[in-house]
Amino acid sequence: MDMMLSEATDAHNPASGGILETSRPMAIEARGLVKRFEGTTAVDGVDLAVPEGAIYGILGPNGAGKTTTLRMLLGIIDPDAGIRRIFGHDRPHDIARMIGYLPEERGLYPSMKAYEAIGFLGALRGLPLAEGKRRGRELLERHDLGHAADRQIRQLSKGMAQTVQLLGTLVHKPRLVVLDEPFSGLDAINQGKLELMIRELAAEGTTVIFSTHVIAHAERLCEGVAIIAGGKVPYAGSVDEARDRIPAQVRLETRAEHGRWRDALPADARREGDFWMFSLPESGIEPLLRALIEGEAGILSLSIERAGLHDAFVHIAGEAAARALTEQSAVEAAR
Amino acid sequence: MSPSETAGGHRKSRLNLWSAAFVIARRDFQAILFSRAFLFFLLGPVFLLGVGALSSGVGSQIREETVDPEVGIAMSVPDTAAMLAAHTALAEQLGGAMPPMIAVETSPQDGNLQQAAEAILEERQGNYAAIVTGTPAAPVMTGTADQLDRLGGRVALVAAAAIGEAPAKFPEITTQEVATSGASEKSSRVVTAQISQMLLFLLTMLLAGMVLSNLVEEKGNKIIEVLAAAIPMDAVFLGKLFAMLGVSMVGILVWGSVAGVLVLVVGADLAALPPPAVGWPLFLLLGVVYFSMGYLLLGSIFLAIGSMAATVREVQTLSMPVTMLQLLVFFFASYAMARPGSPMEVAAVIFPLSSPFAMMARAAQMEALWPHALAILWQVFAVAVFIKAGATLFRKRVMKSGPQGVSKKRRFWNRKPAAT
């Protein structure tokens, strides 16, 4: 199986199949993952390759198959077809100490104290309970929750409990952190803190993979993304490559309205108010610029705008998936 | 490449099954033991004793108020007197074995006494089980078939005594008492077997049922996914079972200590208890082992059934059939106990759920120890199979994505999930 996966990985096209171009060893490799639930195909042939130390996002609307994919990667459920390997292991439970997991539906024992809950989550991953509790107190202090260390989970606010669970996910110092919708339910300040934590983890060499339906988080944080819609992954690769799927847009403002220079504009040029908008020609901007000057267009302003991840998502996953994503983000923001 | 290494050079790093189960068991055990609810749990038998005392009081009251059915004598006046005199004489020797006997008041117009007796019984007059007419030499007994079967012999004995054909005087017997006999030891051991089996069943029924709702908390507070991601589900099941077994053992220890103190205070003679075949020390040890095995066997099934339930209400709904299942198992083991060595008893020993109960009865009745070693191994194997099956079922049926996309109503243990 090792050989099969390696060969498949090497032969894979990075732009279309989920491999980031990197010489780093892989933290996660998945090929052709399929999961069906009583006739419904929840995940349909997902390929992923996440190099060690990367921040990787799985981007898609609710019901797209994000959680099911993560659950298969973690060994919570087994795929009906396909292979998954975490740090080269077929069975994720075999390397449980190297993994930290924050599920979408957060849960802790309400009667446990905050530092005990962190210790317990560490103990599940093989950390001695006493050491876990000690680290729990330390982590709570470091994240301005020292005052809550001896409070029961049921006495904490939702945000605080969520932070406690996140700290419990990290207490055993995992090499791979899997976060399912980690920003869900957090206010803007805590979202910022979480982004910082994720960056710090990656800086320490920890691989972070998270699912989200908020494009901005993925765009700000991720080295690579997998766009998932309807159980399929139409794109997996670097964020830059995803954005490059759409040619950069040129925004041009001219003094002259007519003239020979207009013949030099690309075929897709369109008027938007005072501006001309069109895709950056494959030959680059210089030949066009020369033609505009020679044609006496009177250039007032010219800017090249690279496509955002949202545009790339629309382009790759389609309008419907993008609309679902936007609606869910709006609902999330309204909470 | 060794099995514990991979291309990336990472070694396997995880808790083994027992360590993982210990993490779960320790959490559950402490959470239950240090909860207020545990105090009520310990007080449970007090309520049971209260109910027992109350029902026993009511029972004796009813017994006192209940009049035993009588045998009526409807013969000529001298014959009736002879029958009643013979009854009194025999009752002195046979005590309670003789049914109460009274004269039936008849009038001369009754004519045929047999027809009169029939009419009295059909009209349900008095409290007669049967009425005897005719003469002591040729008695005619009227009554229902079962009463005729039950009372016929004793009425004939009274009639024989009335006509002087039964001994009028009984010789005095000199008695010599021995500590035991074959029949006495056998019946004592049956009593020990019955009591131990009943105790084992009561404890298992009271305590194993708690396991039913054990995973509802984890499912309710969503921590189940964290557990499932970190350790094998087998370890979760195993840990939960052993935690509950530990809690039950603490309860039994407390109840046993209280009972022991009460026995000392009351000054009951424990030596009067019929000794089991394997001796008391081993019998008690086997009791602990068979309770544990019975608990783990039933508990592993209850845990699996309960884990399929989504809410406490569903668990409550499930508790009735589960109690019935326990009763069935107990009746099977009890029935088999009376026939040691029979195919039925062997079946009860082999069937995993009844095996601990049947073997407990065996320990009271038979001295051989090797069947216990075999049975315990078999029961351990069955526990392992049940836990594995339950955990597998749980992973397949329950550990799926959220509730979105459920298109039609399904059985609660078979709900269709949707990807999220």
TrEMBL record, chain A:
Annotated Pfam families: ABC_tran
Entry keyword Kinase: no
Domain ABC transporter: 28-255
MF terms in GO: ATP binding; ATP hydrolysis activity
InterPro entries reported in the protein's UniProt record: AAA+_ATPase (IPR003593), ABC_transporter-like_ATP-bd (IPR003439), P-loop_NTPase (IPR027417)
Keyword line: ATP-binding, Nucleotide-binding, Transport
Coiled coil regions, renumbered to chain: none
Similarity comment: Belongs to the ABC transporter superfamily.
Protein known as: ATP-binding cassette domain-containing protein
Source taxonomy: Bacteria, Pseudomonadati, Pseudomonadota, Alphaproteobacteria, Sphingomonadales
UniProtKB/TrEMBL annotation, chain B:
GO (cellular component) term, any one: membrane
Main location: membrane
Aminoacyl-tRNA synthetase as UniProt keyword: no
Keywords of the record: Membrane, Transmembrane, Transmembrane helix
Topology in membrane: Multi-pass membrane protein
Membrane-crossing residue ranges in chain numbering: 33-54, 198-216, 249-270, 282-306, 318-338, 376-394
Cellular compartments annotated: Membrane
Any GO MF annotation of the entry: ABC-type transporter activity
Domain ABC-2 type transporter transmembrane: from-to ranges: 37-386
InterPro entries xrefs: ABC2_TM
Top-level taxon: Bacteria
The name this protein goes by in its record: ABC transporter permease
